[in-house]
């Protein structure tokens, strides 16, 4: 079979199974098995694929057909300026979180050797992206899940200014005084979780569940970690699009709490200072 035939076969089967974005997903898996960029497909599409690669292609296609998220099928995903390893047990980095990283980078770029703490790191997409972009920074990534930790460690390999801490943030983790604490904690209301898309439900519940009102982890951060932020430091949070008003009440240890919208015009980020 040539690569183009594999692509066409995947598109057909995904369409028949009513899987969304069939063409894009088919392109991603054929390029993944061949270890090429999607943009290089045209150069390779008439190449024969080995029996071994055909088997790999079939297993990836089966995963997609069974509803597995594309990101888990190919095992990696682009976020900000890097590629992150992902798989079952870790949240897939989202585009809206890139905006949080952009904001953090903007706020940190003129600081000398800033100390940054990323609470609830997951894959490490936030903390590692900041560490790579802000030279001289020291970034502490705190994550409780041992499944997520596997990916966090893999993604942080070779990034010397990242320190990983395997801990539960509800237990007051011992951390240095930070110029910035940044976090995208679980923020979905427990009762809303079952109604999420089936693909999202494959992601770890622990990464999604923000308690009865979705605000549990923001209260923890307000109560336990305000003291870990320098007087001129900042707290940066990702929030759910309906949490903009509530967050101002929750963050009562902070003097100023500003809600910022994402590219779609939804409340999405919070910058707080003491
Ligand atoms: C919404 S995900 C965010 C992951 C990553 N920061 C991102 O933006 O893609 C929240 C993360 O918090 C972790 N988590 C949940 N409860 C935690 C706790 N008590 N202590 C530390 N991490 C926790 C989950 O395992 C998950 O990786």
Any overview of this molecule?
The protein contains twelve helices and nine strands. It has helices spanning 3-16, 22-34, 41-44, 51-65, 70-74, 95-108, 125-133, 146-156, 190-193, 198-201, 216-225, 244-250; strands at 76-79, 82-85, 115-119, 138-143, 162-166, 178-183, 229-238, 256-261, 267-273. The strands form two sheets. The protein has a seven-stranded mixed sheet, sandwiched between helices. The protein has 274 residues and is of the alpha/beta class. The model has no long low-confidence stretch (mean pLDDT 97). The chain is elongated and about 65 Å long. Helix content is 40%, strand content 19%. Helix 8 (146-156) links the parallel strand 4 and strand 5 (162-166). Bound molecules: S-adenosylmethionine. S-adenosylmethionine is lined by residues 91, 93, 97, 120-123, 125-126, 142-145, 148, 168-170, 184-186, 206-207.
List keywords for this structure.
12 helices, alpha/beta, 9 strands, seven-stranded mixed sheet, two-stranded antiparallel ribbon, binds S-adenosylmethionine
Shape: elongated
Largest sheet: 7 strands, mixed
Strand content: 15-25%
What is the chain-wise order of helices and strands?
HHHHHEEHEHEHEEHHHEHEE
Distinct ligand kinds: S-adenosylmethionine
The helix count comes to 12
Structural class: alpha/beta
Q: Nearest-angstrom radius of gyration?
A: 20 Å
Helix content: 40-55%
Instruction: Give the averaged pLDDT, no decimals.
Output: 97
Strand order of the largest sheet: 5-4-3-6-7-9-8
Rounded to the nearest angstrom, the distance between the terminal CA atoms is 62 Å
Q: Which spans of ≥5 residues are poorly predicted at pLDDT below 50? A: none
How many strand elements?
A: 9
């Amino acid at each position: 079979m040539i690569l183009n035939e594999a692509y066409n076969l995947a598109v057909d089967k995904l369409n028949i199974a009513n899987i969304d974005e069939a063409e894009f997903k088919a392109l991603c898996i054929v390029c993944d098995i061949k270890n090429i960029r999607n943009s290089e497909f045209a150069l390779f599409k008439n190449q024969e694929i080995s029996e071994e690669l055909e088997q790999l292609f079939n297993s990836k296609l089966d995963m997609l057909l069974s509803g597995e998220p594309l990101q888990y099928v190919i095992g990696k995903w682009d976020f900000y300026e890097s590629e992150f390893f992902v798989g079952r047990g870790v949240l897939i980095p989202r585009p809206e979180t890139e905006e949080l990283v952009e904001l953090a980078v903007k706020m940190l770029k003129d600081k000398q050797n800033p100390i940054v703490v990323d609470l609830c790191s997951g894959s490490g997409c936030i903390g590692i992206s900041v560490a790579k972009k802000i030279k001289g920074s020291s970034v502490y990534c705190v994550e409780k899940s041992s499944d997520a930790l596997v990916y966090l460690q893999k993604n942080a390999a070779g990034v010397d200014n990242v320190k990983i801490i395997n801990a539960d943030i509800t237990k007051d983790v011992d951390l240095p005084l930070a110029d910035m604490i940044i976090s995208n904690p679980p923020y979905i209301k427990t009762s809303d979780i079952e109604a999420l898309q089936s693909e999202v439900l494959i992601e770890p519940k622990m990464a999604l569940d923000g308690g009865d009102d979705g605000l549990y982890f923001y209260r923890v951060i307000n109560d336990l970690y305000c003291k870990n932020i320098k007087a001129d430091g900042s707290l940066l949070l990702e929030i759910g699009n309906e949490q903009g008003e509530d967050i101002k009440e929750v963050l009562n240890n902070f003097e100023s709490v500003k809600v910022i919208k994402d590219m779609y015009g939804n409340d999405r980020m919070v910058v707080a200072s003491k």
